[in-house]
Protein: Glycoside hydrolase family 5 protein
Organism: Leucogyrophana mollusca
Amino acid sequence: MTLSTGLITLALATASLATPVSRASAGYVKASGQGFTLDGETYTVFGSNSYWVGLTELSTTDMDTTFANIASTGGTTVRTWGFNEVTAPSGDYYQLWNGSTATINYGPTGLENFDNVVASAKAHDIHLIVTLTNNWADYGGMDVYVNQIIGQGQPHDYFYTNPEVIAAYKNYVNAFVSRYVNEPTIFGWELANEPRCTGTTPATSGTCTTETITTWIETMSAYIKTIDSNHLVGLGDEGWFNDPNSTDYSYSGSQGIDFNANLAIETIDFGTFHLYPFSWGETASPITWGAEWIENHRISQATYNKPVLMEEFGVLSAQNQTATYLNWYTTVLDSGLSGVLIWQAGSNLTNGPSPNDGYAIYPDTPTYYMEQAFSSLIKARNAVTGL
Ligand SMILES: *[C@@H]1O[C@H](CO)[C@@H](O)[C@H](O)[C@H]1NC(C)=O
Ligand SMILES: *[C@@H]1O[C@H](CO)[C@@H](O)[C@H](O)[C@H]1NC(C)=O
Ligand SMILES: *[C@@H]1O[C@H](CO)[C@@H](O)[C@H](O)[C@H]1NC(C)=O
Ligand SMILES: *[C@@H]1O[C@H](CO)[C@@H](O)[C@H](O)[C@H]1NC(C)=O
């Protein structure tokens, strides 16, 4: 029996006994070597994604249900969307575009709504990773900036280089980040969800490389530091490597991301990566491929002495989900990777189940119990290793 198998047995036996410990904290989560601290103690990043908690017109009661369900898995950290770019008011949105002019929505369907998200997270002792735009067209994202400022259907990657677009994005980031500079519930900011040279819009300039996006990351992460020195800054990327000798799409730099170059940036505090072998064509042996992906990012974590998070992962239930997640959580635990967030949280809300793209994990399901077990194990690991 390996150490982790023994710990899993122990945690499964004690999971139902776990009671949430309320630990009010005045400080901010900080990066320390390959891990995190809060008020001088080890802080374990374990939890889930809920992009929808601030975007689907939830009542504060439903926000509370969402965070309570995640806290009951032992979750400490939730990643969510801090953006929705619209060209006509609709639902919860944070920025409204008219031509090339964007107006921040400070009202009850905008930042006041996000205030409620933050208050609810805080009440459940959850810290928030807030992502500030999207590579993809869901909830607007980069293409709205490009379409509104440069023109409809212009290259996606102009988002990273056009000075007016960069100024508009900085303006949005400034409004959002400034509002929460003194809010310890914010774990950190992420520049974008899954930035790549290509987006939902097919057009590209043909000149976008890893250096294009690395330069943008340097600019934007340094900019956030000038507004907010309290919070961590990460990227929000899928973690692609840039090995020109590799023929593997995920390792060859093909998507415009150089994980190691980006992790080396001084104003990037932690690394991020995602894991979706079926979406990425890595289907020959997805469990093993994923375990290697985790281990390779753990090596970067050690090389650059910065924490790295597997902040999204998923296979569908028909894709051997239980065995896969058991393997990957165990690999995170045993490898020493700093932290992990599953894609994605599910809750039973007032008007029915929260959004489900096939990956949602609802309470009282086998994977939900698996989360409970691994949160205990990873916290126990960190208590011993100081990770
Ligand atoms: C959008 O901007 C144009 C030009 O400045 C203005 O005439 C129009 O009233 C604006 N539309 C809205 C809905 O504010
Ligand atoms: C790529 O291959 C060349 C030739 O074999 C080698 O010199 C180089 O170090 C390799 N680069 C990387 C990043 O492995
Ligand atoms: C699921 O994964 C496990 C562990 O690798 C393997 O033993 C099993 O055969 C897989 N099942 C299916 C249906 O692929
Ligand atoms: C939540 O809903 C799911 C189905 O959507 C169901 O399986 C589960 O039992 C429900 N859990 C609770 C606590 O109501």
Summary: Residues 39-385 form a domain with the TIM Barrel fold (CATH 3.20.20.80). The chain is about 35% helix and 15% strand. The radius of gyration is 20 Å.
